[in-house]
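Annex B, item 7. Sequence and structure tokens for protein A, then protein B.
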Amino acid sequence: MFFKAAVFVTACLALAASASPAQKRQQLAQVITQCTVPNTVALTFDDGPWVYLYDVSKALVAANATGTFFFNGNNYACIYDADEIKRVRYAYDHGHQVASHTWSHKDLNTLTWDQIHDEMWRVEQALQRIVGVVPAFMRPPFGNYNDLVRQASFIRGQKVVTWDFDSEDSIGATPAQSENLYDNIIAQRPSTILALNHEVYETTVHQVLPYAISKLQNAGYRLVTLSECLGLPAYQSVGPPGIPDASWQC
């Protein structure tokens, strides 16, 4: 199923008509490591959709803020499960940005060209089916990418996104340690912050997130989506969602 018709449909969004196939293959996607709009913070959440998504959204919305969810297709659960579909739609319908974290959270640096595209297009297809959008941003699992990944992302019309602040929840930080990391970065008063968090940890969602929201807003930052903190479109295309059928499976 690697690199089939769906790959080329999405890829066409990014190709310049005058470029040769060899030229297209050699072009590298832009790598985003920080926000560019002053006084903004993009709180991003990886590895979902998961059970705590609703609480992430509610905490943000209550603070008149938005966030960005980098979704996998088949990591903690299959994105086509009924509960997962509801979570994706809930995030999108409540004004948050949805983006790609690849299909199954593999280290892209270890994959072939066709395997990289398979990891990318399957989650893109899922997001297009579920909420009608083709994401403009992809976050590689573990933050790992090489030129092959950047070439594939360019062809797919996407920018590669990492971060400039890590709450370290995925590497064992306690809530107190994550909160201390937020305190430290706020004390440095950078113009912008692109923050990495994970929606799959209960303590991140119920302890660290409320703390971070309060501290960041008290410091005068606006909490916005990734696209807003960059001044760029969140999606390559926006259309109507699909209707679930037998092909919606992992």
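Protein B:
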Amino acid sequence: MAGMTSTAHLTRFFAGLLVCLLAFAPSGARAQSLIRDAEIERSLKELARPLITAAGLSPSRVRIMVINDSSLNAFVIDSRHVFLHSGLIMRMKEPAQLQAVIAHELAHIANGHLTQRALNLGAARSAGMMGLLLSAAAAAAGAPDAAAGIAMGSQQSALRVFLKHTRAEEASADQSALRFMAAAGVDPNAMVEVLNIFRGQEALSSGRRDPWASSHPLTTDRLRAVRGYAASAKPREGNDAASAYWFARTQAKMQGFLRNPNSVLRRVKKSDTSEIALLTKAVAYHRMPNRKLAYANIDALIAKRPKDPYYRELKGQILLENGEAAAAAQAYAQAVNLAPDQPLILAGYGRALLAQNTAESNRKALQVLEKARSRDSQDPRMLRDLAVAYARAGNNGMASLATAERYALSGRMRDAGTHATRAAGLLPRGTSGWNRAQDVIRASELAAKAKRN
């Protein structure tokens, strides 16, 4: 019946809360936020694809997400998402090392470790307990503020063990990951290299350990077993050149936006006109800021790869953040033509159209942003822009709904409930928008109840 929210639907909603706790603004990212960047997500998808296939999973159903955190960590909370900390990605020296971490986390999915653990917690099948589990996962991932927004109370500290793997699970995941790597043509010795990075972590106090070392116990026997398998493994032939390329793009983009631009530029020769060097310099000069050199390098990059939508998207971002909305919209439009269904690129295009703030650009922005939302509803920054587009179109009910969903995704459940209630009062009863508002209201009520308990 209209107005009734099923447990399964609410559980999916809570899962969405953790999938996108906070949006990533490339020009000014915050700690413990998700990095939402189309190019980085595409690069990680390409690195993970052969491993996902080798694990017997579907590449279209597993997403690799990045948390903006300098510590070394990676984890899974369900069968569809692998989370990597930015610090871990930038610490890896070669693609096989990053792929080893991804393979290990995929093994936890393929081996059913989290599924079994959830089944053991019988109450986890209820929507309320799922919210608490996700809150615990958020806290373990280094986002205590977001976790507090989803649920608060003594249950949280008890449930934080949800992500901690047993030694038996770790040994099982290692063996499976090594098989996945060999089948995907990735050198299993990279797993040994990764474990050696964490080898000294267990001797440190809990406050000084990186999270991965705390949640993935490392033992001498475990390291010995991995070394033995890696020494005897004969991996299939893999596409090392492609892996190196996507890994280089990932690191160039992340280092450019997350590290000191002067430090980044010192590592690149001014005369270097290779693709990765141009990408690195375009981002770093943009952040200095040095508009002239940022434009020169992004234009050279596009000339080198004119059919790459992510470089045109980057040009749109640089132009927009320099106040050139019309030129930015043109660059984003070119990116959309090359990748018409990429939601993050669509969201950027909508943002540039809104910045022009004409009747026509606002009308088109609403169309573009609605399309972006239909492909990825878990992007708070897009939802913020969508709310503005609805408000400019005079649709205050949908503007309040988009705002409510944005607050829910950032863990501000009380504010989410307020705006969802307002939306429900403005939208026709029984419509899709009204039903979505009911979902947010129910989630807000569950969060408030958990806080009281």
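Comment on protein B: The chain is about 65% helix and 5% strand.
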